[in-house]
Automatic annotation (TrEMBL):
Organism encoding this protein: Spodoptera frugiperda (Fall armyworm)
Record SUPFAM superfamilies: Immunoglobulin (SSF48726), vWA-like (SSF53300)
PROSITE patterns assigned: IG_LIKE (PS50835), VWFA (PS50234)
Domain of life: Eukaryota
Gene3D superfamilies to which the protein is assigned, alphabetical: Immunoglobulins, von Willebrand factor, type A domain
UniProt-listed Pfam families: I-set, Ig_3, VWA_4
GO cellular component: extracellular region; protein-containing complex
Descriptive protein name: Hemolin
Gene transcribed to yield this protein: LOC118271465
Length: 1163
């Protein structure tokens, strides 16, 4: 259920206004909506109009927020904080249902709630179509509108009122007059026009220029005279009455945005000049006229029995027939008005008291002498004139007429202490108690303590004339009781409050023990609080002696500036125990409190020693024994030693984690114990030191042996412990040593060969280290030339040419080169490298036979190499295949060409090409051919490469032959993947997803028949993938089944020779054709079908492919085999069989061939 009140403050559209609300004291725009059933249609129209009205709000609006109230449901309220919530709140306002017991017009209750929840100076609009059922509460409404200085307007829709403003509506007229409003009687169609009035009213601050109610004067006009001064503008004339009629003078004819209905009219006058103005109006009922304007000159007022200091010391409703001062606070933005006097006017507009002088008390604040308050409702008027002018008067009316209070019976005393019956306070704090008193006549209020002593206090009136308040302010040092007493002519009333002073110290419930990790900081807090100044001391208690030692800032402790925290900088074993924090009052050291905490150290770890169980020391070298120790706190370390012959450990002087022996000897061998100890525990570990000695070798440096004789290479180890292991290595080619078999100290070669020549290395190694020795072995051998090349080709332009001559022999043979028996010597033209002859810049003159002669002390040999000269290489050298697409660009570089120091030549089929590379642009078949490059360098290395270029394109399939009704021509399957390609494409076949080996491709259509085929046609430029299915609507009987000897004879349905179509490999039987299959008996044994063992002849109906229907079952041809091969004992019997089977001549030529095959098969 939606609540009754909707204070819609803090709207987004009002953000700018609300930021100034506290200083401008702007009122609310309040809507009081009748939510009884008869208002159902009106409510929807009102809600829509409220939303539209929001658009006129800005920072200059005279209201700060919106409040929406319904007549019924006073049980809840909702605050809307943005424009969306305004919509939501309004949407939830609905008329009550017909049977709802709350369906009554409680308009006064709605108004009271609206006034209580609206700001001072509000504009309140009531929407109803019926008289007030709770009109007896009208008095409260009028008192509240006086207190809140708020204007109330009634919008009466005519649907529920048979006569215009019947007697029951008088309540609304009386409230409107009292609260400076109007009663608008409208039909439902005119209701929206009221909101135009609302928009005008809230745009800015209004002043009242004229206001009067006229009694009923049938057919007679009421004459209205009003005065406009220089500071008044934007005049609006509003009038209400039944069937209104008005007559304006010419000076008032200019108006805009007028609203005219039968019962109310509103005119916004334009260009009204200062001075007196007149018009007349009449109606068939009481007539109300209100003229408002806008001005920067206006005032607020109040009344007081005593001379006030400011408007805050006044009240708005004086007591009737009492002496009061009238106070006014003037707002004059231009400071252009001189204040002259005040007047008290009756509701008829005439003075009812003598004029009142206004005395300026402070800036813009004026007070009159005392005067007797009238008993009837009256208006307050302030008169002034423009400064420097002698004219009078500029009149400003108070917005709301003043309704004096007629005091009822004396009020019974009521005394309440706002703080309750009991309260607790901090020690030595100031306590302020509030006593609220309701009484009349004015009471005397006093405060007493528990001892009955009167205590000074301050009292004042809160709401005239009944509500008072008294304040008592005392400083609390101990518990007490205070009584507020009020007395007047009626009697005496009092009430008391007990005040309890809290303890001086407050202790937070903190743990009594704390654990701090060794070596880490820890903080203790003194959680003693007090509202009074205190000091704190810290102590460390020796639990053995009970002595407290004060803790001060030191290397171990740090105390915070306010002494509430003690920090142990680095926790150690001697810093645990009990700590006491002592707090005492600065002004009373005897008033103190102690708080203790036990501090325990954590993180202590027993020593743990880690050493190597064994350690090897090398004789003559230093050795280091390490003792890795952990523990908290860090343990101390001691070393002990027990030699090989000792019985106990002896202490050593070393205390570090490392024990160093600079020059190890045999006496140092033994056990070394590392002992670690801290406050937690003790731990030790033993390392055994073993002394070892590096190997040392003696041997010869070189050996020479004759070919074929045995030889021993000796590696004698003279020192080393433990016993070294021996390994052997050999270097025959002058490069790296390679391991060879052998672990003894002698390498024995039973029969020396040339391959044994080389350097032999023996390595002796133990745990202490290793030693090695090299012996060079030479096997004596006559020179042998092992080069196989008999000729060398010079290509014109070579940088150099190398003529190889590899020689073996022992000792190493000397090599001599000759040409035409002339010894060649090294010079700029010739040079030698590992026996080979290198000729720089060779030409035709180098053609000839070159002799390589090798010689050592055992003999000599020679070889002749022919050198020829060619324009281009006679061989292809290394071949490279280059496949190019039609139109492709390609740059072919010679792989042998690696440096600019090399010479490079290119050749094609025609001859030499003067190029560094072969550049092919937009390749075509004209570029096909061989491109040879030849490279040489100054070292005589030559290299030839040939690039075989083939220009072409990816394969393209030549035809697409659907094989949905294949008749056995196997070429039809293979041709489905024929292609046009360069270079020629290869085909990879798959049958039903499995690869067909290349060797089986020839059997396509024979072994592989019906099913799904995939062919991948590819060459270096690309591939084409094709898939197709092979199906047959006819039946194909193969001629060359694997088990042909067991196959039955195929015959016509009537058992005669069939005249079927045939291909190379198959007989073709049409679908649905019935054939006879026969397993004929032989003379030696009966025959039958394997799957029909009782039958020698069956009828088969062709289904498709190789499938026949036999006795309602589907069978492949290969499944219909005979149990026995059919054969005949002699040729004559065979011939009789064939001719007895039917007409041979009708079988045709193909059958004749088949007959011959069978005939010759059985010969």
């Amino acid at each position: 259920m939606l609540g009754r009140i909707y204070p819609l403050a803090v709207l987004l559209v009002f953000a700018g206004v609300l930021t100034k609300a506290s200083c401008t004291e702007k009122g609310s725009l309040t809507f009081v909506i009748d939510d009884t059933l008869s208002m159902k249609d009106d409510i929807n129209q009102i809600k829509s109009s409220i939303i539209k009205t929001l658009s006129v709000f800005n920072e200059t609006s005279s209201v700060s927020d919106i409040v929406v109230v319904t007549f019924n449901n006073t049980d809840a309220q909702l605050v809307a904080k943005n424009s969306d919530e305004v919509d939501t709140a309004l949407k939830d306002i609905k008329a009550l249902s017909k049977n709802d017991p709350r369906n009554q017009v409680l308009s006064m209750e709605g108004l009271i709630l609206a006034l209580e929840n609206s700001n001072r100076g509000s504009h309140i609009y009531v929407f109803t179509d019926a008289s007030a059922k709770d009109h007896q509460k009208a008095r409260i409404v009028k008192e509240l509108c006086q207190e809140k200085q708020s204007q109330i307007y009634f919008m009466i829709t005519g649907s529920n009122t048979k006569h215009y403003q019947d007697g029951s509506m008088a309540t609304y007229n009386d409230i409107a007059e009292t609260c400076s409003g109007l009663v608008y009687v409208v039909n439902k169609l005119e209701a929206s026009k009221v909101f135009r009035l609302i928009s005008n009213i809230v745009i800015g601050e209004e002043i009242v220029v004229y206001q009067k109610n006229f009694p009923v004067l049938l057919s007679k006009y009421n004459y209205i005279q009003f005065n406009v001064d220089q500071l008044t503008k934007d005049l609006t004339i509003s009038m209400t009455g039944k069937n209104l009629n008005r007559v304006f003078n010419k000076d008032l004819d200019k108006s805009r945005d007028n609203i005219e209905t039968d019962n109310f009219k509103v005119y916004n006058l334009m260009d009204v000049k200062p001075g007196k103005h007149f018009f007349k109006v009449k109606s068939e009922s009481e007539t109300s006229v209100v003229i408002t304007g806008r001005s920067d000159f206006f005032f607020k007022h109040g009344f007081s029995e005593l001379m006030p200091k400011s408007l805050n010391d006044t009240f708005l409703q004086p007591i009737a027939d009492a002496n009061v001062h009238l106070s006014v606070l003037v707002s004059d933005v231009g400071k252009s008005v001189e204040i002259i006097k005040a007047q008290i006017l009756g509701m008829h507009g005439k003075p009812i008291t003598p004029d009142l002088n206004l005395t300026n008390i402070s800036k813009d604040f004026y007070v009159t002498p005392p005067f007797v308050t009238p008993k009837q409702r009256f208006r307050v008027v302030v008169n002034g004139r423009l400064k420097g002018s002698k004219d009078c008067c500029m009149m400003r009316f108070a917005k709301i007429p003043v309704t004096p209070l007629n005091l009822r019976d004396n009020r019974v005393l009521k005394v309440v202490i706002a703080d309750g019956k009991e309260i607790s306070v901090e020690y030595n704090t100031s306590l302020k108690l509030t006593c609220k008193v309701t009484a009349f006549p004015k009471p005397k209020i006093s405060w007493l303590n528990k001892q009955g002593q009167t205590i000074d206090s301050k009292s004042s009136m809160v709401k005239y004339p009944y509500d008072y308040i008294s304040y008592l302010e005392v400083s609390m040092l101990k518990d007490d009781q205070y009584t507020c007493s009020a007395t007047n002519d009626i009697g005496l009333k009092s009430t008391s409050i007990a005040v309890k002073v809290k303890d001086t110290f407050t202790v937070v419930n903190t743990p009594s023990r704390a654990e701090f990790k060794y070596g880490k900081p820890g903080t203790l807090k003194c959680d003693i609080k007090s509202s009074l100044p205190i000091n704190i001391r810290w102590y460390h208690l020796n639990e053995m002696s009970g002595i407290k030692k004060q803790v001060l800032d030191s290397k171990d402790y740090s105390i915070s500036a306010d002494k509430t925290e003690l920090k142990i900088i680095k926790m150690d074993v001697d810093l645990d125990g009990k700590y006491v924090c002592q707090a005492y009052l600065v002004n009373d050291k005897k008033t103190q409190m102690e708080l203790s905490k036990i501090v325990e150290i954590t993180g202590l770890v027993a020593p743990k020693v880690q050493t190597h169980a064994n350690k090897i020391g090398i004789k003559g070298a230093p050795v280091v024994l390490e003792c890795n120790v952990t523990g908290i706190p860090m343990p101390t370390i001691k070393w002990q030693f027990r030699g090989k012959s000792g019985s106990k450990f002896e202490p050593l002087g070393e205390t570090g984690s490392v024990l160093r022996i600079s020059n190890v000897e045999a006496k140092h061998e033994g056990q070394y114990k590392c002992v670690a100890e801290n406050t937690k525990a003790k731990n030790e570990n033993i390392t055994t030191l073993f002394i070892q000695e590096k190997p040392k070798i003696k041997g010869v440096g070189a050996l020479t042996i004759k070919l074929g004789l045995p030889v021993d290479i000796v590696c004698r180890v003279v020192e080393g412990f433990p016993k070294p292991n021996i390994t052997w290595f050999v270097n025959n080619s002058g490069k790296k040593f390679k391991p060879i078999a052998g672990t003894l100290d002698v390498m024995h070669i039973a029969k020396a060969e040339h391959k044994h020549t080389g350097r032999y290395k023996c390595v002796a190694q133990n745990e202490a280290g290793k030693a090695e020795h090299i012996t060079s072995l030479t096997v004596e051998l006559r020179p042998v030339i092992v080069t196989k090349s008999k000729s060398v080709e010079i290509i014109e332009g070579d940088a150099a040419i190398k003529i190889p001559c590899k020689v073996i022999g022992g000792p190493q043979p000397a090599i001599t080169w000759k040409i035409n028996d002339t010894i060649i010597k090294a010079n700029g033209k010739y040079s030698f490298s590992e026996g080979s002859l290198i000729i720089q810049n060779p030409n035709k003159t180098e053609i000839g036979n070159y002799t390589c002669e090798a010689k050592n002390k055992l003999g000599s040999t020679n070889a002749v190499i022919e050198v020829t000269f060619e324009k281009r290489p006679s061989t292809f050298g290394t071949k490279h295949f280059v496949y190019l697409l039609y139109g492709e660009n390609k740059n072919i570089e010679c792989k042998a060409y690696r440096s600019k120091s090399q010479t490079l030549k290119w050749f094609d089929n025609e001859g030499e090409l003067n190029k560094k590379s072969i550049q092919i642009t937009k390749a075509s078949v004209s570029n096909d051919g061989n491109y040879t490059c030849h490279v040489s360098d100054k070292q005589g290395h030559t290299e030839t490469h040939t690039y075989i270029v083939n220009v072409g394109g990816p394969p393209k399939l030549l035809a697409d032959n659907p094989l949905n009704d294949w008749r056995g021509e196997i070429q039809e399957i293979q041709s489905n993947c024929d292609s046009d390609a360069k270079p020629q494409a290869t085909v990879q076949w798959k049958y039903n997803g499995k690869v067909i080996p290349d060797s089986d491709v020839q059997d396509l259509g024979v072994i592989y028949k019906w099913g799904h085929y995939t062919c991948n046609v590819s060459n270096p430029h690309g591939f084409v993938l094709k898939e197709f299915d092979v199906n047959s609507s006819v039946c194909l009987i193969p001629k060359n089944l694997k088990d042909a000897g067991y196959m039955p004879l195929p015959l016509n349905e009537d058992g005669t020779w069939a005249n079927w179509k045939t291909s190379k490999y198959f007989f073709v039987v049409d679908a649905g054709e019935i054939i006879t299959l026969s397993c004929p008996n032989s003379t030696d044994a009966p025959n039958s079908f394997k799957i029909f063992p009782t039958k020698t002849e069956i009828k088969a109906n062709c289904s498709k492919e190789d499938k026949f229907v036999v006795d309602a079952g589907m069978y492949k041809v290969s499944e219909l085999q005979c149990n026995n091969k059919y054969y005949f004992t002699n040729n004559a019997e065979r011939i009789r069989f064939w001719f007895a089977s039917g007409s041979f001549s009708s079988y045709g030529l193909v059958c004749f061939y088949f007959f011959l095959f069978i005939f010759y098969y059985y010969l």
